[in-house]
Specification:
The protein is an all-alpha fold. The chain has 3 helices and no strands. The protein has 2 domains: about 55 residues; about 60 residues. Helices cover about 80% and strands about 0% of the residues.
Length: about 120
Amino acid sequence: MRYLITLLTILSSMLLFLTWGFNTAAKADTVSSEYVTTTIGSIVQSKMNGTEVDVSKLMEQELAKVGHQFALESINILQKYLPTILDNVMTEMRLEADKSYKCELLKDSSIKDKDCL
């Protein structure tokens, strides 16, 4: 009896966790909302029919989905900030090229510079 209560508690906790996780992952997206409803409905139906749900496979697929969403958001962020990043890189490359050129010009002269030591 104690084993059954523990098992039901764990399964209920997992179901609540999955429901909460799916709902927070898909707050404003209608397609995701339908996906969450379908997934949870399928899990509940499988539990009611007594068939086993491969929770590890389900979590693996959900993590892959979240990873894909993260990659898409990262691409959008890079697209937004890439011009600024490239401008900074180009500025640093120009400064380094100027420094190298200055040192090359001052190499055989008597003028000493702190950057060219």
